Amino acid sequence: MKKIGILHGKERSFPEAFVARVNSKNVPGIIAEPVRIDKAMQGVPSGYSVIIDRISQDVPFYRTWLKNAAVMGTAVINNPFWWSADDKYFNNCLMTQVGVPVPKTAILPSRDLPDDTSDESFANLGFPLDWDSIFQYVGFPAYMKPFAGGGWKHVYRLGSAEEFFQKHNETGQLVMLLQEEIVFEEYYRCYCIGGKHVRIMPYEPRNPHHLRYVADFSPSPQRLQEMTDIVLRINKYLGYDFNTVELAVRNNIPYAIDFCNPAPDAERTSVGEENFEWVVETAASYAIERALENDGHGDHLTWGEYVKRSSTKMQLI
């Protein structure tokens, strides 16, 4: 019997619906359940052919447990090694090389010194930074947000350098991004599962949270295809099995605003019934597909084009 597990925290609607959907398909030799961990020893298989990870970004113990599971042959969705290495600034840098429009973005050192460091730890960092060049490059208004993380935590809209310094003084040890504001005509949140299944959802981030998937616009067939191609290209290079991409359309150009969401919102009450049904059905079918092809040996992780090309270059040296 091949087991499909889902690792989650307080989230309930999606994990419960996912487990029920997989089991309702009655695929011979396949069963789904919430992951159960009662011990963790090195080199011991997890007991799962596939695990969908919804919580390890907040629980370091889970993240390292998942890495052992992957080493022992589990297909972990998403790849915990890549997810541990990834961040929003790198993603933006990569997109500049693969033809995806992104806002102008600069990364900033933390306002406060990290623990166990001193001024001497930053001997290579110019002080003060060339703030004028940074501000000229990004422009105002701009958004400041953490280079890693999500959920709209610690996100600030800034109208001037004075506002920037005021808010940056409040960010403590967080490493922040300063990013060009894209004043958009339309905004879309796009699910991508398995690197091949895409759902484009009109989204209004300025609405209250429970109304953000309620919008009075929809894409033309041409825009729909264009955005689908962008979403597939992003996930092809990053290698995520389960991700959302946020696209802001300005002057008929879709800009990728946020596309590092490997545990994206899937709550029925926020995404709406139709979107929820698509996510549950697509995730269940994809997890079954991965379980059926998993022989229990070797690497069953998804690696993005960026890593695969780098690996190929190393092999040729």
Automatic annotation (TrEMBL):
<keyword id="KW-0067">ATP-binding</keyword>
<feature type="domain" description="ATP-grasp">
    <location>
        <begin position="92"/>
        <end position="293"/>
    </location>
</feature>
<keyword id="KW-0547">Nucleotide-binding</keyword>
<dbReference type="InterPro" id="IPR011761">
    <property type="entry name" value="ATP-grasp"/>
</dbReference>
<dbReference type="InterPro" id="IPR013815">
    <property type="entry name" value="ATP_grasp_subdomain_1"/>
</dbReference>
<protein>
    <recommendedName>
        <fullName>ATP-grasp domain-containing protein</fullName>
    </recommendedName>
</protein>
